[in-house]
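User: I'm preparing a small set of examples for a lab meeting where we compare how different chains pack in three dimensions. I only have the primary sequence for this one, and I'd like the structure in token form so I can line it up with the others. Please keep the answer compact; I'll paste it straight into my notes.
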Amino acid sequence: MYRSYETNPTSISSLYKQYLNKKAIPQKDYVTYRKWLRYYLDFCHKYQNNQHNQLNKDNIKYFMAKLKEKEQNTQRNQAFHAISLYYESEPANSLEDTTFKNKNINLSTKNENFKSINTNWVPAFDKLKNEITLRHYSPKTLRSYSGWVSRFQDYARSKDTKLLTSNDVKDYVTYLAVKRKVSASSQNQAFNALLFFFRHVLKNEFGDMKDIPRAKRKPYIPVVLSKDEVETMISNLTSPYDLVVKLLYGCGLRLFECLNLRVGCFNFDAVY
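Assistant: Understood. Below is the structure token output for the 272-residue chain.
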């Protein structure tokens, strides 16, 4: 109930933190989860009438709808999960609320279905880390793969990993190319990360992925000028700029090194 939280917020917060640890929620997310719980309890207190001031299913629907009105769609999944953990942590399950036991309930005015979403991916991330470590991949690879899997998790709305299919990957990689307009290298990196995740963590194969739209590679633009291009450029420069460019090109100097040159920097007695 809200009033218990209101009269003793420290103890409730402490118990909730312990439960987050028990459910293997990353410590970096503790603050965010506790924030969502506080927002939800405040919402129950401020916006619901007294007879509905319990933490019941109706309040959750209203809260999720409120987030949607504020266009906080990306945060709704995490908010729902944070509240669900609070319900689970209630002593002796004193609230006879099946909101989070039955994933088929509707949580918005548009009957948005939360079935098979908002599941806990922490074990999958732990296994991903172990699989990469066992293969002695670099820490950079671990960060990259974990990042793409995390973004895929957001896109899939934390769908149960047992229900993930190659179609989910196709949709996400297509989304990256069509909607996000990522580079070809980024799309390939995402694909390789998810391939590793499916093959070694979920023990599942992709299947045929030939029909996925591919991001277009940008035309290669050389970063080094040819000798003829340098000569053409110098011939169109006037003094003293042509001398500066000649020194940069002939001696391999940086611009500030060239501009700081003084007469004493040259050995005029040397014969070449």
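A couple of notes for your slides: The CA atoms of residues 47 and 53 lie 9 Å apart. The longest helix spans residues 30-47.

User: Perfect, thanks.
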